[in-house]
Amino acid sequence: MLTGTVKFFNETKGFGFITPEGGGQDIFVHVTDLVDAKTLRERDRVQYEEAQGRKGPNAVKVSVIS
Fold first, then answer.
1. What residues does the CSD domain cover (predicted)?
2. Burial of 19 (C-beta count, 10 Å sphere; 0-12/13-18/19+)
């Protein structure tokens, strides 16, 4: 599992971006890939797996960590 911080999340549209903890390109996240959460907030620390989407890397199996 990878970790990162939520950079932005639009609750209305159901998507946002995660900044990986080790640096690199921001990762797209969609609300349907959240585990045990219905939304994310800026600066939430999250754990996720990375999958290849149509337009680049996507975060999947995303869960908030404390």
1. 1-64
2. middle
Q: pLDDT of the chain along its 66 residues, tens only?
A: 999 999 999 999 999 999 999 999 999 999 999 999 999 999 999 999 999 999 999 999 999 997
What is the C-alpha separation between 12 and 20, in angstroms, rounded?
23
- b/e per residue 21-60 (b: at least 16 CB within 10 A): eeeeebbbbebebbeeeeebeeebebbbebeeeeeebbbb
